[in-house]
Design brief:
Layout: E1 31-33, E2 40-42, E3 62-63
Antiparallel strand pairs: 1-2, 1-3
Length: 64
């Protein structure tokens, strides 16, 4: 049985095209957004958006 091994990695790590999102800065996003009510707040460095609660409705925030 012959098996062909294919290397799916980029020639140099970090040079791929990604998934179509805008490039992120060090530490992730600059803005957190509530998916329920749409409120946007500044991202607190060192705290993931998903760990922050929306001040209006209490839902977990997401990076925007």
């Amino acid at each position: 049985m012959n098996v062909e091994v294919v290397d799916l990695r980029s020639p140099t790590p970090g040079t791929g095209q990604g998934v179509g999102l805008p490039p992120r800065r060090e530490g992730g996003r600059d803005i957190c957004k509530c998916p329920k009510c749409g409120l946007t707040v500044s991202h607190t460095r060192g705290v993931p958006c998903t760990k922050q609660k929306c001040p209006n409705c209490g839902s977990p925030m997401v990076g925007a």
